[in-house]
Write a sequence for this structure.
């Protein structure tokens, strides 16, 4: 049975790493002593060790150990034996390239489907969708595929951002970008604002946090769903 | 001999399509009756015909005809015979995918190297660099490669945007994104602000417009260059 937290971001403005969601993580990982951390997204290009230390500092507050996947020789065995998995944010292209390189995609799918608790933030949430086509990240490396974990039957846009009506910059708004995606793809997209997350328990997908989420479906105008909404019918 | 305008954007805030640069286009295309327009980037998912009409409306003001590459059976022949080429903005992933699909990459390189005047805006400028790894666009389709035209010996970041110091959004700034690119790649990146362009005449590359550009080089702190700077040594 799936047991996942798919969070828009790790960090809210003026708050520490994972701080806003730490109480929920405490119950999410209530039976867990050690979390397997996947540091491959390397935010700002930091090393796997540095990133793992950052995760450890946050998880220490709820008395959980963190061990980095990069310290294991065989990624598939480390994932299969993990008590819980946390995939951190950073650059989705870097993350997905490395997951393919160490053959970690299918082992993560198998682990989550057999009940290993999962936490994703930002890039680590984007990969829970069908594809990474709705990431916000710069394509700084070329992954072998944009196909991702498909643990929910839609795509995710983390850090969803409403248009800035005062801006004079001519770059596309997030909504414009996702609407362009809908021209070439049929799966729905869930725009998760910072501070929101999806809770997946078995087949139940629920929007959590205090904010609405923006839903994009093929040939339908984008619409908002409220916190505690059930997204099971979205596919 | 190369003769190119590589522009950050097609459109400035509160101004019409290509309006800010129309005088320069008049001299850039002074001997040209018909421009071959490559509409593949499809901004907002509009059709190739609609996009070509938008380009035609602007070029009519300087008495130049526009014909869309999509109306030709053989892209390579159309490009080889073109008096001039204009690649419009939109989504770089869509543009590059289609350029590979119709085998247009090498014909464009050959045409520009033999003196066919070229204009690129936004995505059409990004592809003038070595790779498309520094596009701002959402990866809504999967191109066969991120390698692009390499008509300048560096990468380009169009619509370069300075950090918004008042923002509470936790997504990466443009500078952070490009610095992440520099962790995995060694070529320089030119961040071109809206209203700026590069003029390429043979081997001379000059920054045009009224704004500075931001230059990222491997293992060097990013720095600004002034308008009329020569970028020939950047590689």
């Amino acid at each position: 049975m799936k047991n996942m937290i798919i969070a828009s971001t790790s960090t809210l403005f003026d708050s520490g790493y994972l701080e806003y969601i730490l109480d929920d993580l405490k119950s999410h990982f209530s039976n867990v002593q050690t979390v397997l951390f996947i540091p491959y997204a390397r935010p700002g290009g930091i090393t796997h060790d540095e990133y793992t230390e950052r995760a450890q500092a946050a998880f220490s507050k709820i008395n959980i150990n963190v061990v980095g996947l990069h310290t294991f020789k065989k990624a598939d065995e480390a994932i299969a034996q993990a008590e819980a998995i946390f995939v951190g944010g950073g650059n989705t292209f870097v993350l997905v390239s490395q997951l393919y390189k160490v053959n970690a995609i299918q082992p993560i799918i198998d682990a989550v489907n057999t009940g290993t608790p999962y936490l994703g933030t930002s890039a680590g949430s984007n990969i829970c969708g069908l594809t990474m086509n709705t990431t916000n990240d710069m394509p700084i490396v070329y992954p072998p595929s944009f196909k991702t974990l498909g643990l929910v039957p839609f795509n995710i846009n983390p850090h969803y951002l409403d248009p800035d009506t005062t801006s004079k910059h001519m770059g596309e708004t997030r909504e414009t970008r996702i609407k362009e995606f809908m021209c070439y793809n049929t799966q729905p997209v869930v725009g998760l604002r910072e501070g929101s997350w999806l809770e997946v328990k078995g087949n139940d997908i629920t929007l959590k946090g205090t904010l609405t989420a923006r839903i994009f479906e093929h040939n339908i105008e984008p619409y908002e769903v409220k916190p505690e909404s059930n997204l099971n019918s979205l596919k």
Observations:
- The mean pLDDT of chain B is 96.
- The helical segments of chain B are 22-28, 48-60, 75-81, 92-101, 105-113, 123-126, 174-184.
